Automatic annotation (TrEMBL):
Residues 17-124 form the Aldehyde oxidase/xanthine dehydrogenase a/b hammerhead domain. One of its GO terms (molecular function) is oxidoreductase activity. Its cofactor is Mo-molybdopterin cytosine dinucleotide. This is Xanthine dehydrogenase large subunit. Keywords: Molybdenum, Oxidoreductase. SUPFAM superfamilies: CO dehydrogenase molybdoprotein N-domain-like, Molybdenum cofactor-binding domain. It comes from Flaviramulus basaltis. It comes from the Bacteria.
């Protein structure tokens, strides 16, 4: 059975041997040039002059490309056309690309970069969303969702609280930095090897910028060394630049950002500043919730409008709130355009309602847990965007977590500890999650698979899925292996290539395995039908009695003498097509933006995490004793891979909430520009214990083989880390006035421990 729970990520073998191929490992052609990006040293200003002469004169420099060299459009914006590839007269963020230096070696190109002289007349710099709002600097018009009548509902509330929250950005820190390799083919065609989640975006944007047809561009992706959303849109510019150089020079060009360049030039998770008002009844029902999100979008739209939309979709997390008024403003600032990051605006939305609940709890004098529990979603509740909640597992995962992990004993333990320790305090928090699965832009929910069965019975599969460590290739293999009942080593997943699978959506939105897996399943099933017919003719039995099992044809439950390989030979001999292409588009989903209502998600993923933390109240440092999770995998088809996704996402979420602190100065210069100043979780800061128990459900037919999407949802468990630390602080300092300003760094913890 290919759906072995213990199936290993097929990449693990080459990963541990250091043999997996990334863009930087492409064997370059003779005469390949190397490129480095010259970027703005100021966050906002008018370019007065640029002197390239010294750089151009440097031995080994081939050519420097600027906006003047663009044959098509100097435009890379996807949702809104507001972002040039190279700055023209103005610069809008520190790190904005201005030119591409192409030279014999990367070293020479870097040297040349230092010789470029630029004069910029500085303009006022906006770094925060609030400032942008005051100045009326926006990306697009605000969006707003509404359910019920908030104003009226507030008038009948027993408790009303208002407050402000801040959540900071987050650096993707994919281990493989952004990069691309471009090669000339004949007739002006270009092949790009790119570290992108969206091969079609790369292809389309290159065609636009070069002013040539898409069919002249072939984009190929073997795998990424991590994406996390950072390569959904922002892998594109580097590929376009490399292609531009190839277009002119008819030579291969390699452009790989080093870590400093990558950190400075690329956008991150969006910081959000938000204000809320929450109203509760006497028995702690949330009757009304009003929220305004200020999204720090950066200097161009990128994916910000879609991310803002997902913030609204997840503004009430796992709770049913009958009256909701939510609004989001995408604020234009002078930071690098912020972009997709695992959760895609959802985490930012959820942090605010969790903060509102924590605030209400502390004011009313109950535990947040009581308010959370009182308001969990029920079957057939309505989300603020009109979708009716079905197959809800909010209460199930919550109650299971409480039971399985004995929450009462845990609370007693913590209380006992806190009574008996003066300088160490423990805190506990529960974090439920509900995350919608599908691209919120309905038209993006489709994929295709191209399946070849070769003469010898081996199989090659191409899809739109980009492998970025999440194990999607393994899942696709499992699907085909299951349909044909062949072993995994009979199957190969080909690179993701725009000439084999065209017009693809990016690998994103946790939907890659669902969309591409379902296409693969359809293609394989069509082939299976054909093969059964061949077998039935050969063995002279009815088709319905034919089964494939363990690489043999079975007649009912009896093994025939016709093997898988022989069956393929027979099919070939009979001129039966052994290739199939299938297209899958998620059924049922729709959304009407004019009404902001619809049914945008195929299904939701649920779960509950319990955090316990210990804070050192002398030092302000903390560690997480345990995270105990009950997670809704549906019926997991690859338990090891899915567990890896939950653990990885959890730790990434904890990092965002606790230690990862992006800092720009008021001039828009990135200060956290290296790993010495930007801390991510390491082996010492991950929770001492992580337990993940799957909730038993029937799964969901909209998910591939009922195995639910797993990429993004568990990141939001990390929000619990913030509140666990906060509860520990409260145990030490009862006068602490709760603030909701993430990340909760040790410095902030220390200040809070001794604040009045
Ligand atoms: N990307 C996207 C995403 O383009 N649309 C989405 O809805 C989405 N959701 C999560 C992550 N990436
Ligand atoms: Mo995304 S945040 O590229 O799924």
């Amino acid at each position: 059975n290919a759906l072995k729970k213990s199936v290993k990520n097929i990449d693990s073998y080459t990963h541990v041997r250091g043999e997996s191929l990334y863009v930087d490992d492409v064997i370059v052609r003779q005469g390949t040039f190397h490129a480095v990006v010259f970027d703005s040293p100021k966050a906002h200003g008018i370019i007065k002059s640029i002197d390239y002469s010294k750089a151009e004169a440097l031995e080994g420099v081939e050519r420097i490309f600027t906006c003047k060299d663009i044959p098509g459009k100097n435009e890379i914006g996807g949702i809104i056309h507001d972002e040039p590839l190279f700055a023209e007269n103005e610069v809008h963020f520190w790190g904005m690309p201005i030119a591409l230096i192409v030279a014999k070696t990367e070293f020479i190109a870097r040297k040349a970069r230092e010789l470029i002289q630029i004069e910029i007349e500085e303009l006022p710099v906006i770094t925060t969303a609030k400032e942008a709002k005051v100045k009326g600097s926006f990306i697009n018009a605000p969006r707003s969702f509404s359910l019920g009548d908030t104003e009226k509902a507030f008038s009948s509330c027993e408790y009303i609280f208002e407050g402000e929250t801040f959540s900071n950005g987050q650096e993707h820190l994919y281990i493989e930095a952004q990069g691309a390799y471009s090669e000339p083919l004949e007739n002006g065609n270009i092949k790009i090897t790119s570290s992108t989640q969206g091969p079609t975006s790369v292809q389309k944007t290159i065609a636009n910028v070069l002013g040539i047809a898409m069919h002249k561009i072939e984009v190929d992706v073997t795998r990424l060394g991590g994406g996390f959303g950072g390569k959904e849109d922002q892998a594109t510019p580097w590929a376009v630049m490399a292609a531009l150089a190839t277009y002119y020079l008819n030579k291969s060009v390699k452009l790989i950002l080093n870590r400093h360049d990558d950190l400075r030039m690329t956008g991150k998770r969006h910081p959000y500043e938000s204000t809320y008002k929450i109203g509760l009844s006497k028995d702690l029902k949330i009757l009304a919730y009003q929220v305004e999100f200020l999204q720090n979008s950066g200097a161009a739209a990128d994916l910000s409008p879609a991310i803002a939309e997902r913030t609204l979709f997840h503004a009430t997390n796992s709770y049913y709130v009958p009256n909701v008024l939510s609004k989001v403003l995408s604020c234009k600032t002078n930071l690098p355009p912020n972009t997709a990051f695992r959760g895609f605006g959802g985490p930012q939305g959820m942090f605010v309602i969790e903060s509102a609940i924590a605030k209400a709890a502390s004011k009313i004098g109950v535990s947040a847990r009581q308010i959370q529990e009182t308001n969990l979603l029920n079957e057939n509740d309505t989300f603020s965007y009109g979708q009716i909640a079905k197959k809800v597992e909010a209460k199930n995962t919550w109650n299971s977590a409480k039971d399985i992990f004995d929450i009462d004993a845990l609370e007693d333990e913590i209380e006992y500890f806190n009574k008996n320790n003066a300088t160490f305090k423990k805190g506990l928090a529960l974090m439920p999650i509900t995350f919608g699965i599908s691209f919120t832009n309905t038209s993006m929910n489709h994929a295709r698979a191209l399946v070849h069965i070769y003469l010898d019975g081996s199989i090659g599969i191409s899809t739109a899925a980009v492998e970025m460590g999440q194990g999607v290739n393994t899942k696709i293999m499992q699907i085909a292996a299951q349909v044909f009942s062949v072993s995994l080593d009979k199957i190969k997943i080909e690179t993701t290539n725009t000439t084999r699978v065209a017009n693809t959506s990016p690998s994103a939105a946790s939907s890659t395995a669902d969309l591409n897996g379902k296409s693969t399943l359809m293609a394989c099933n069509s082939l299976l039908e054909r093969l059964k017919k061949v077998a039935s003719e050969n063995l002279n039995v009815l088709e319905e009695n034919i089964k494939l099992k363990d690489e043999f044809v079975y007649i009912n439950d009896e093994k025939s003498n016709l093997s898988w390989t022989e069956l393929i030979s027979k099919a070939m001999f009979n001129r039966v097509a052994l290739t199939e292409n299938a297209h899958y588009a998620t059924p049922e989903i729709h959304f009407d933006k004019t009404k902001e209502k619809g049914h945008p998600f195929a299904y939701h993923v649920y779960g509950t995490a319990i955090f316990t933390t210990t804070v050192d109240c002398i030092r302000g440092t903390y560690e997480f004793d345990s995270v105990k999770i009950v997670h809704d995998y549906g019926k997991s088809m690859s338990e090891g891979i899915d567990l890896g996704q939950v653990e990885g996402a959890l730790v990434q979420g904890i990092g965002w909430m606790t230690m990862e602190e992006i800092a720009y100065n008021s001039n828009g210069k990135l200060l956290s520009n290296a790993l010495s100043t930007y801390k991510v979780p390491d082996v010492f800061s991950v929770p001492k214990s992580i337990e993940v128990i799957p909730v038993e459900t029937d799964g969901n037919d909209m998910a591939i083989l009922k195995s639910k999407a797993v990429g993004e949802p568990p990141l939001m468990y990390g929000i619990g880390a913030y509140f666990a630390i906060q509860n520990a602080i409260k145990a030490f300092n009862p006068n602490y006035k709760v603030k909701f300003h993430a990340p909760m760094t040790p410095e902030k913890v220390l200040m809070s421990l001794y604040s009045e």
